[in-house]
Amino acid sequence: MNKISPEKLKLIAFLPLSLFIIVGIYLRWKCLDEVFLNEWISRDFDRAFNIFDGVSFPLAGPELSNGGRLPGPFMYIFLCIPLFFHYSYESIFAFNFILGVGSIGLLFWVTRRFFGIYISALCTILFSLNLSNIGTITFPFNPAYIFPFTILFLWFLLELTVSRKAMYLAGLGIVVCLGIQFHYSVVTYAFVVIFVLAFFKIRIGPKVLIVSLFSILMCLLPYGVYKSQNHVPNNVGEDLSFEEQEPSVLGKIIKMVIVQNTIRRISDDRSFFKGNDHSDVFKELNWFVLSFCFYFMVVTTTVRAKKSGIDSCRKEIVVLAMFYIPSLIYELSHPYKGHFWYTYIFAVSQILIVVMTIAFIFRWAQKASVKVFFSSVFLSYLIYFSYHSVSFVQEFLSVQPKDFKQHTYKKSKVLLRTLMERLDLTPRELYEHVYLRDYNPMSSKRVELASVRVGENIKEEIADSSKNCFFVIDPLESTGLAGLQFNLFLRDGDLEAKKVHEIVVDTGAASRKLLAYEYKPRFNQACYRNMSNPYLSENLLLDAKKLLKRPRISGKELHPVIKADTLGLDEEYDSSLKLETFRGHYVFFNSHTQLPFRFKLDIKKKDGKYFLRGDIENYYFWRGPNYRMRRLSIVFINKENPNQEFSSVILNPDKVINTYGSTNLKWFREVELNKDINLTKDQFLMKVSWEINWHEPNDHCCSTYEFNNFILKKFI
User: Fold this and answer.
1) Which of 190, 194, 335, 350 is the most exposed place for a label (fewest CB within 10 A)?
2) 374-404: per-residue pLDDT in tens?
3) Quick one: DSSP state of residue 69?
4) 628-655 pLDDT tens trace
């Protein structure tokens, strides 16, 4: 019987590989039509568009769960690449798709280079159907882009350790420093590099070391500037841990050393941001396969290293280190259990461990029957894994969302365009004049791009400030926060209702009826709106940093946790010493909540009457204390009658604005002052008084109310 030639074997391996790659690309392509967004993605896309438009250049990356930002702006520069081809969200989605498909090809090339065609083919098959990588197409948030960097890291690490090319150390430093600007989990790879340098006793020449350190410094330099200029809060997040806890100390230590928490976490990975959970069979099978292959590979590599030396198993040690060291760091640090994307850094090493173990067993087995058995077992696993991946994606794509909050980008674009057409609003007017209860795009750019069709150019349109406001709600929503907000809106005596517009939105899947209540505030105040991106008040952090650098002035702040500073002050009086205009700009910082807010006060005299306008802007750190400003007023006290106070309310606790929750607030209100207020120079005291409601993230029982005052102008 003739043996099959190596060329024919490669051809046989290539055929199923091509089939699986085609299936993987097809699944990614189908997911490309079901992309959905949230405030994180709007935040990141806004910053990329700002760089491309020359509006601003951020020096730090996406926000961290516990306050602060990722160390560098590379992600936003990276997202500018597709904008050179087409100025749209769709171009970024397509770019993410290309990265997903390109990662398949890059993994094949790297593994083919170091492990041979057969291991490479099996790794590529498993990666092409990897649900975590496929899921990032539907939700292009910041960790979605780290897959190419994990493969580059594997390549450079193998070149450093197996090919013994020390110059790749600089490349590893760059990959890690740029990778952590997408997600902090990549920082665990730095410890992998340190380990392999020490374990393999790799000598690094001074030239390579200098180039490596310089490269790392250049990657992190923008963040160093950011840290020196901006306020970054202390770690204020809740206590995070794995779900399963061992009752005994010994059990915890054993579980930590054998990284079972991490293996279980990887096996339970939900994969899709809004997808269903995996079946228990799939989870348990993944757990068993990964556990068996990992421990088996540890044992066989150890035996082989003792028998034949470390050089005989360098590749195995590198792969195990790339998996085990980040796993052990996770065991010690207890990352947030709700964020399944922490498993992304394990995808490549996990696949390699499984495939290399199967390959070792196949080579080790002497009898044909044993080879057939293990081949059948692995083939069965591969078939089940493939079937589950395909069916899981199909199930995800078939789910119809219940409300606009869960709609894809494409369908929400129809919603926004329909509102603009039916209410006769420009994108800027929709952004500034509409409160949309059932959907929040969180970005003016998002609304702007929704107004154009593919191939059209965006027109520069200025909002008409004289247009009325709109409160848009689904009439079927009548409970919970929606009902509370709607009732507050209907009872608001400061609003003059005009008429109700009935709007039918047809997204292709189903029609939805919305009611748009048109209204006009009796006072000059901001419309209720929900489209402010909660991450784009960066100048406020600059002011907060400057404020915190200054020493506390005794007697200036009347509350022990409040710091304040005057950013600008201008006042004018007429010949009779009566106030004509007053303009003040202030920044406040609360050391409890770690949050700053800015306040502008403008008083002007018109037709013998005084009008006061207050503008508020605050900043919210994700997972910081849940902070809400309930009330803000300007209080006047006359020197002749200090017991009498006149108060002008800028923010009321019984308004819709106070139900927004933990997002940044931009609000203004202008009111007429009481005619009895004496605003003679040096004869009146003026202070801002506010009340905030907050609680720590891990404090679910109680809220804290704080009343604060700051004197804007004293008696003389």
Assistant:
1) 194
2) 778 888 888 898 999 999 999 888 876 666 6
3) B
4) 778 889 999 888 888 888 888 888 888 8
Q: Is 689 exposed, middle or buried (0-12, 13-18, 19+ CB in 10 A)?
A: middle
- Say what the alpha-carbon torsion angle 335, 339, 344, 345 is, to the nearest 10 degrees: -10
Q: Is the pTM of this model over 0.85?
A: yes
Lowest-confidence range among 63-67, 353-357, 426-430, 499-503? 63-67
DSSP string covering 109-122, please?
HHHHHHH-HHHHHH
Cβ-based neighbour number of residue 715 at 10 Å: 12
* Burial class of residue 387 in the structure, from the number of CB atoms within 10 Å of its CB (0-12 exposed, 13-18 middle, 19+ buried): exposed
What does DSSP say about strands 469-473 and 434-436: parallel, antiparallel, or unpaired? parallel
Structural Rg of the chain based on CA atoms: 30
Which DSSP string do the residues of 416-429 spell out, in sequence order? HHHHHHHHT--HHH
Tokens of 583: 């303009």
Q: Where are the alpha helices (DSSP H) in 237-342?
A: 249-257, 260-267, 280-308, 314-333
Locus of tokens 């964020």: 339
628 phi and psi angles, rounded to 5 deg: -145, 125
| 281 exposure class (CB count in 10 Å sphere: 0-12, 13-18, 19+) | exposed
Banded pLDDT at 346 (limits 50, 70, 90): very high
CB atoms within 10 A of CB 520: 13
CA distance 292 to 354: 9
CB 433 within 8 A of CB 425: yes
Measured on CA atoms in the order 430, 434, 437, 440, is the torsion positive or negative?
A: positive
Structure tokens that stand for 250 in this block = 């010994």
Q: Which two tokens stand for residue 301?
A: 């590599």
Residue type at 130 in one-letter notation:
N
Q: Kindly indicate the confidence band of residue 557, based on its pLDDT and cuts at 50, 70 and 90.
A: very low
Give the C-alpha separation, 494 to 517, whole Å: 15
Residue-level pLDDT at 237: 47
Q: Which of 347, 326, 8 is nearest to 146 (CA)?
A: 347
pLDDT of residue 235: 54
Paired tokens of 72: 């560098």
**How many angstroms separate the CA atoms of 282 and 338, rounded?**
19
The 3-state secondary structure of 624-680 reads CCEEEEEEEEEEEEECCCCCCEEEEEEECCCCHHHHCCCCCCEEEEEEECCCCCCCE
Which residues touch 187 (CB under 8 Å, ≥6 apart)?
176, 180
Laid out side by side, the sheet with 524-525 consists of 524-525, 666-672, 609-618, 595-606, 579-590, 562-573
